[in-house]
Design brief:
326 residues, alpha/beta, Rossmann fold, 2 domains, 4-stranded parallel sheet, 35% helix, binds phosphoric acid mono(formamide)ester
């Protein structure tokens, strides 16, 4: 979880979404617009023609410098459903491996008339950096940067919650686990508070909850049973071992004993509470398979909804670009 200082370069002079880098600084109306636009795309898989022409003739580039399963593939599918031409930049087979800088890579792909870059990078701020240097008429969407932000993940999570629970206002939402290293948690907390839920709780060991979390408007719990009591939504997070510098946990077994979600512990939440996880899941570490695959889990639906939400974000950003000549 990291905070970056930035001016809101995400909006154009008319207040429209040009880049989507963070939830920070975006209002409830804009977040609701993304959700409503996604709703119109969510029906497409059930239709005989699953594509719309919104991005026909546009070039979209997936620029992933870090591994991904769900985000990269759903962005690709979303762009194809919008009829765009998609470039998938593979870092391991690109000239990055020969020392080409990020900006030179950007300029070269811009020269191929790419109008949108979907960026994942291990460094917090990488997507902002590219957005600040992008040519006019180019949009940047943050697909996860370091510990900072993962705004489209947060929006597909909000879409999932709205689909299953309706109104945000009465909801109590618990986010459980490694809050410290989580770009997802930070984006979710900002989105949930902007959309006006009753309460956001974060639950985890003291070593994995940053001291500044309270300033984001959450209630902190270190006891899982207490934190889950009467919540409507439980969001489990992965232990991000690749981002842990020192020994923050005694062992995975001990972590599961204290913070792993089992059916028994889920009894503390409301009877109709849903269980979410952004993936990838560490079964037997964050949660029992019985819960992950159980009737209250909406984890795979989150992935499906991600396509519609990413279509919505791309189609809103492209509205700030000039028309492609016929
Ligand atoms: N939730 C998420 O970002 O998953 P991937 O790392 O597979 O994209």
């Amino acid at each position: 979880m990291a905070r970056l200082e930035h001016n809101n370069i995400q909006l154009d002079s008319e207040g429209r979404l040009r880049h989507f880098l963070t939830i920070e600084g975006l209002g409830r109306d804009l977040l609701t617009r993304i959700l409503d636009t996604a709703e119109s795309f969510a029906a497409l898989p059930g239709r005989p023609v699953k594509k719309v022409p919104a991005l026909r003739g546009r070039v979209i580039t997936n620029l992933f410098f870090e591994t991904s399963t769900r985000t990269r593939t759903t962005f690709e599918l979303a762009a194809k459903r919008l009829s765009a031409d998609v470039l998938n930049f593979n870092v391991s087979t690109s000239a990055t491996a020969k020392g080409e800088t990020l900006l030179d890579t950007l300029r070269n792909i811009e020269a191929m008339h790419s109008e949108m870059f979907i960026v994942r990078h291990s460094q917090s701020g990488a997507a902002h950096f590219i957005a600040r240097h992008a040519a006019p008429g180019v949009s940047v969407i943050n697909a996860g940067d370091g510990r900072h932000a993962h705004p489209t993940q947060a929006m597909l999570d909000m879409f999932t919650i709205r689909r299953h629970k309706g109104d945000f206002a009465p909801l109590r939402v618990a986010i459980v686990g490694d809050i410290l290293h989580s770009r997802v948690a930070r984006s979710q907390i900002l989105a949930l508070n902007t959309l006006g839920v009753t309460e956001v709780r974060v639950i985890g060991p003291r070593t994995l909850i940053p001291t500044e979390a309270r300033a984001l408007g959450v209630h902190i719990f270190h006891d899982l049973d207490e934190g889950l009591r009467d919540v409507d939504v439980v969001i489990m997070l992965r232990l991000q071992k690749e981002r842990m510098d020192g020994a923050l946990l005694p062992s995975e077994e001990e972590y599961f004993r204290l913070y792993g979600l089992t059916n028994e512990r889920l009894e503390n939440a409301k009877p109709d509470a849903i269980v979410m996880h952004p993936g990838p899941i560490n079964r037997g570490v964050e949660m029992d398979s019985e819960v992950a695959d159980g009737p209250r889990s909406v984890i795979l639906r989150q992935v499906s909804y991600g396509i519609a939400v990413r279509m919505a974000v791309m189609s809103l950003c492209i509205q700030t670009h000039a028309e492609v000549p016929a």
